[in-house]
Amino acid sequence: MAMGQGQQQHLPILAFAAGVAVHHGIFRHGEWHLHGPHIIASHIVLGAATAYYLSRFDDALTNILGQLAVLTVAYLTGLFSSMSIYRLYFHRLSSFRGPKLAAVTKLWHVWKVKDSTNYLLQQKIHEEYGTIVRTGPNEITLFHPAAFDLLDGFNNETTRDVWYDIVRPRTSAIFTRDKMEHKVGRKFWAQGLNSKAMNDYYPRILSLVRELSRCIGTFDQNPVDIDQVMSWYSWDVMGEVLFGEDFNLTKSRVTHPGIKHRDRALALAGPLGDAIWIALLGVPAYAACGESQ
C-alpha cells in the first residue's frame, strides 16, 4: 500500500504539532526528573510504532528509516521550540533577571560548571544580576542571608529541592523530600543527639581529636593532605556517633572504601547536581561499577 503525497507532507507537520502538544499537555505539569528511563522507553516504543506504521506503505528499510528520522526531527523541534518559547516569555519566572540560556535549560548550568566550580559561577551571576536571579527554567537563586530563614526556617512549608532525590530509589532522613518520612527519621536521630548523648560522646571524640593531632604530627616537616586527614577523622567521629566505635582510620591512616565511593559520587555531583535527571540516569550504571570493584 502506497502513501499519498499529501499524507507524506502532512506527517512532519503532525509530528511537530505532537511535540508542542506533549510539552503543554504533559511535561509542563509536575516533576519529571525521576521518570527519565520511562520517558526514554516510551519514546522508543513510539518510534517503533511509527516505523511499523510507515512499513505498511513502503517496504524499503532505508526509506522507512529516512522518514522516521524526518518525523523525529520534526517532533523534537516542536517539543523544544515550545519549551524554549514558553520558558522565555510565558513562564511565571520570565520577569526575573538572569542568563537567557539558563532560563531555557539547566544544561547551560551543567556546561558552565563542568569543572565543578559552581561557587565561582554563582559569584559571577550574583555580581552581574543582583540578589534575586533566575538560574533555571523553574529556579530562582537568592543571594541574601534572609533566604536561609525564609526557605528553611522553623515551621517552613517549602518543599526541598529535587537535588535530595539524587540517591533514589534509596532514601534516608537526610535525602528525602517527604516531610513525614523526614519527621520519622529525625525522631530517631534526636534520641542519639540529645544533651545526655552528647555528654557520652564528648570524651570519645576528645580522644579522637588527640589522635588527629598525633596523626598530623607524624608528617613532621612534610606536606599534609588535610582533606584526606580530615576525612579519616570525620569518619571516625561518625563511627562513634552511629555505631559506638570509630573506624580506626586516623590511627591506621587507611582510607575507608566508603570515602572512595563518596569522592567518586561528588565528582559526578559537582557538574550534574543542577541537572539531577542526568545523574539519576547514571545511578544504576554507577551502582553496577561499584559492585564490580
Automatic annotation (TrEMBL):
One of its GO terms (molecular function) is oxidoreductase activity, acting on paired donors, with incorporation or reduction of molecular oxygen. InterPro entries: Cyt_P450, Cyt_P450_sf, Cytochrome_P450_monoxygenase. The keyword Magnesium does not apply. It comes from the Eukaryota. The chain crosses the membrane at residues 64-90. Pfam families: p450. Keywords: Heme, Iron, Membrane, Metal-binding, Monooxygenase, Oxidoreductase, Transmembrane, Transmembrane helix. The keyword Membrane applies. This is Cytochrome P450. It comes from Xylaria arbuscula.
